[in-house]
Amino acid sequence: MKNAPIRSHTVRELIEILGDDPSQSDGLYVHISRNRFESNPLNYPFKRDSFSLILITSGTLKIQLNLITLTLNRNEIIIVRPQVVAHILEISSELSVVSVSFTVDFIIQNAFKKEDFDAFDFFSSSNIPKLKLSNEETDSTISIAKILERNNRFTIEVNPFKEELINSSFRLLLYHFASIFKKVYPNLEADLSRQEDLALRFLNLLNENLKNERTVKFYADVLCITSGYLSKVLKEVFGKTANQLIDEAVILEAKLLLSSPSLSISEIAYELRFSDQSSFGKFFKKHVGFSPKAFRKGAQR
């Protein structure tokens, strides 16, 4: 396996590999082991496009992250960041896990605020390879994960407040681990590289300025760097350029607005600062594959 090629997997592909329900929302994936793993489902080096939190609820997992090998036992958790090479080396027959994976798009969609990024230290730190939870902390993590997993499977028709429940329960998970992190390591800050810090600051700026600013130059100027360097850093950290992240954030906001009948399509185009409804329609169709009208019709079924 030493010279095995490194594959890349999206969250959607991981769902299929683990045999879970494919109806879960794009950008967020919650896995709760209900049956023991008969064999290692990912016995080769791979990268993901997401952050992944992995909590061991029984058994043992031996995993290599880049060049660091870790053995995880019950009540221990790790965070695997995007683009990190992971290789599951061994799993015990009684292994069961709870994992929560989320993409950069999910962060954009849920409009993380500055205080949320302040609580993001545990997810972005490479200082802490793993944390040991108490039984009570493990039980709380499982409870929050179950809420996330259940609401992630529901449709808007079944649960009209699906997005709000996912948003709230995910933030609860975020602050749950921020609290544990600060309690165990009160004086340790996240070990962000300059590139990672820059990427997170870009996301924060994007959330604040999305409707008014869609040029890479604007964000690069605010961050006091060149547009080319910003895109290079974002490509290295998240696997996407600045233009791609900006466009995806606009599309996510457009989909959210189109899912509500309170605004007309022309009003949405104005809200998102397009010159007219036609230019908005062309932009939306280019990225989604069909018109805003067709998307709204499907969303309201």
How does this structure look, described?
The protein is an alpha+beta fold and 301 residues long. It folds into two domains: 7-184, Regulatory protein AraC (Jelly Rolls, Sandwich); 194-299, Homeodomain-like (Arc Repressor Mutant, subunit A, Orthogonal Bundle), CATH 1.10.10. It contains 13 helices and ten strands. It has helices spanning 11-17, 104-109, 114-118, 121-124, 135-153, 162-184, 194-209, 216-222, 227-238, 242-258, 265-271, 277-288, 292-299; strands at 7-9, 28-32, 46-48, 50-58, 61-65, 68-72, 76-80, 86-91, 96-103, 131-132. The chain has a five-stranded antiparallel beta sheet, sandwiched between helices. The chain has a three-stranded antiparallel beta sheet with strand order 6-5-8, with no helix packed on it. It has a two-stranded parallel ribbon with strand order 1-3. A hairpin with a 2-residue loop joins β5 (61-65) and β6. α5 packs antiparallel against α6 (162-184) and α7 packs across α9. It is globular, with a radius of gyration of 20 Å. Residues 200-298 form the HTH araC/xylS-type domain. It comes from Roseivirga ehrenbergii (strain DSM 102268 / JCM 13514 / KCTC 12282 / NCIMB 14502 / KMM 6017). InterPro entries: Homeodomain-like_sf, HTH_AraC, Tscrpt_reg_AraC-type_HTH.
